[in-house]
Write a structure and sequence with these properties.
heterodimer; A: 329 residues; alpha/beta; four-stranded antiparallel sheet; 10 helices; 30% helix; B: 328 residues; eight-stranded mixed sheet; 12 strands; globular
Amino acid sequence: MPDALLEIQDLETQFKTPDGIVHAVNGVSFNLAEGETLAVVGESGCGKSVTMLSVLRLIPQPPGKIVAGEARYQGKDLLTISDDEIRKVRGGQIAMVFQDPMTSLNPVMTIGKQLAEPLMLHLGMNKQQAADRSVELLEMVGISEARSHLKDYPHQFSGGMRQRVMIAMALSCNPQILIADEPTTALDVTIQAQIVELVKRLRQELGMSIVWITHDLGIVAGIAHRVLVMYGGYIIEEADVKELFAHPSHPYTLGLIGSLPRVDGNQKDRLFSIEGMPPVLYSKPNACPFAPRCKYAIDHCWKENPALVEIQDNHKLACFVDVKTGRAR
Amino acid sequence: MEASNEVLLKVDGLVKHFPIYRGVFQRQVGAVHAVDGITFNVFKGETLGLVGESGCGKSTAGRTILQLYKPTAGHVYFNDIDLGSLKAEELRKTRRKIQMIFQDPYASLNPRMTVEEIIGEPLLVHGNASGKEIKEKVAELLLQVNLNPAFASRYPHEFSGGQRQRIGVARALALQPEFIVCDEPISALDVSIQAQVVNLLEDLQEKFGLTYLFIAHDLSMVRHISTRVAVMYLGIIVELANRDELYAEPLHPYSKALLSAVPIADPVFEEKRQRIILEGDVPSPVNPPSGCRFRTRCPIAKPGLCDVSQPEFREVRPGHFVACHLVD
């Protein structure tokens, strides 16, 4: 990859819980290129959010702990720089939008104040400049009569409008990278479509890189350039979006795509279902973490955890089995 | 199982308003028009999908049909019996035949009861089964929902979301109902688990000849499971048709926009897809817009018509109902 903006190497994050140490992220490596939209897909508990939160050092420590890895950004390792430095990166160059717009805005602060805060903090604007820029930002995300909304409180906004405010806030300091953690999950489909269109437009206008964390493969198909599929804290498949949907090669990816009914034509009689449920890893597995649910599993899958290897250009896979033949690859 | 022409449930002009009280004297100052006059039939053996965005009244509709909320107006006939006219004891008896599966598998199971107590409770309340019979029946029900009967003495927290939803399904099945209202039964579950529960619901329908009212916001899942689909917007049904007809050729502008907003897991298709993006949000159900409720967001609304009179919910083609002035 020529110009990787962000380079994650062997990231490992664990959480201490009363039941033992949970291995949430187990050696994840990937790059984010300039102007690229990377989707991170997986079910709840697969480590997709923790991976990105670890990169920005936003996981609560303790109980969480980043035990290994590197996150290279502009020649620096985000995981080891000082607290002051990481604070400048967060919200400044790398911004984040969270899932629930209801809880990620401060309910007792006006929208205007919340928007102005990062502007004054990161860009050293005065009150008036910050207010003007806030209006600009709100207009950019499609909120009309923006100035009159500055004095509103979050509860006066609908879910979709709140998510727009969150995006405006994230974009306020012209970040190079936007991390969006399930930004549309709490929204209705028509509002979700509005937000997705908005992000696509802004991506074009501002040229930023986006990491879009989601469980919804439909959204991935519409917005991503490249996709990482995660399971049990590992990346199990990585490919360009078209390649992934045309030739899903990991049994889990295959199952995920198969379990989705389509809203247009091509009805399947019966949905493909993956039996069992996602694992919680209390120790690093020495077998494939998906093997207990995998109908392709062969003996070898129980003896070793497959590494992520390139099976062709722009397509990496962590699986011993060739799903087309059902035999070891 | 094929749907028949026999009407199992008839909903006629059902209205549910929630009053809003204000001030020291708690005077009624208005009402949330949650469900504002819906009329439809559910045929025996079919699955009627009820879709709409949050706040459109679909869950309230489901609960009002079961008489969990007392309707403000309108009637619900189950097997030609007007549920609203029944006395409490008669209603309780009729309810054996009508059950519900709830959205949140975490909140809908009592954490202090074992699985056996949860599934056995309806048997205890409605039947005069002995302890041993209940035990046997619970074991049988657990098997039917693909859970190990040995789990009967466990508590809900020991199960995953998908397993809990199965327990909820087993409880609904306990009294051998004819009709089950499924209120967003899969929206709290992960994708791979959703398919498990949907497949289970389909198997059970086949086996016991059940009729479902399937309430959901996930249009692709509704398409998969339903025989017919009703689309709700702000308290009214705007369109009702056979599944394939509705998805292939939606007539109401809202149904069109809703369908075009659903993301499809196919990047090649998504690339060239034309979307209808609706402006703004759903208006408040306290003061629904005059005339057609969708007119404030409708791309084709005609001033002088749509803001004046409320469109009638009429049959424009056999079995295809639409509430829009501009559809002929």
